[in-house]
Amino acid sequence: MKNKQPRQAKYFLLFPFYFLLFTSAAKALPGETTETVAAWINAHPTLRPGIIDGLRVRKSETAAQQFTFKASILPPGELTLVKDKGKIRHERIAFYDQINGVTFNRLEESLRVIYGLAIYQDYQRARLVYDYPSPETIDLARRQDRPLLAAQEGQLVLGERYAYWMEVTNTESGKAFYGHLIIFQKEYLDKLETQIRDR
How many Å apart are CA 5 and CA 7, to the nearest integer? Predict the structure, then answer.
């Protein structure tokens, strides 16, 4: 997450399951056909071993540690029906890890490992659009007894090629066990920002 947390040496091995071992240049991204993305996943050394179907990947050593990847024809956020069902609109990387926790750095590094340097640099150079929770949201969560509202911490950023949504859900101890990073077509940014602000 930009300007939120310095990189730390302990996150050098960011993928404790030992399956995200290869950095790969992205060949299939949002905007491509489902067939193209499915073929890319099938050929990807990191994603291929955990394929559930053509567009979904899940890997787990224990119930306490899981990695998932999903390419979807739907826009990110709330369910929206689409006419063209042959095009991928967003791709989602997610971790659930009760042992090591999930950090912003870990999500960012997963983007680099899966998509390669060009997409990682697009993310790093992206413009911050929305950063949450705000102090007002934290106060509202306290007054209305809605702890999840303050526990969800994330950012929307806009790059030259794509938009990105990163979020972790913090526990009461301040440690997150779940987090995701979504790469999606820029045309859906405004709608997703509205949905996140209104939830």
Answer: 7
List the structure tokens of 104. Answer: 């912003």
pLDDT of residue 10: 35
Count the residues in the chain.
199
Low-confidence residues of the chain: pLDDT under 50? 4-23
Q: Who's near 145: CB < 8 A, 6+ residues apart?
A: none
List all residues 6 or more positions away from 81 whose beta carbon is below 8 Å from its beta carbon: none
Q: Convert 118-134 to b/e letters by CB count within 10 Å (16 or more is b).
A: ebbebbeebeebbebbe
Neighbours of 98 (CB within 10 A): 15
Q: Tell me, what's the pLDDT at 25?
A: 58
What three-state secondary structure class fits 58? strand
Helix (H, G, I), strand (E, B) or coil at 116: coil
Is residue 135 reached through a cis peptide bond, with omega within 30 degrees of 0 on the bond before it? no
The pLDDT tens digits for 123-171 are 999 999 999 999 999 999 999 999 998 999 999 999 999 999 999 999 9
The torsion angles phi and psi of 167, rounded to 5 degrees, stand at -150, 140
Question: What pLDDT, on the 0 to 100 scale, is given for residue 7?
Answer: 38
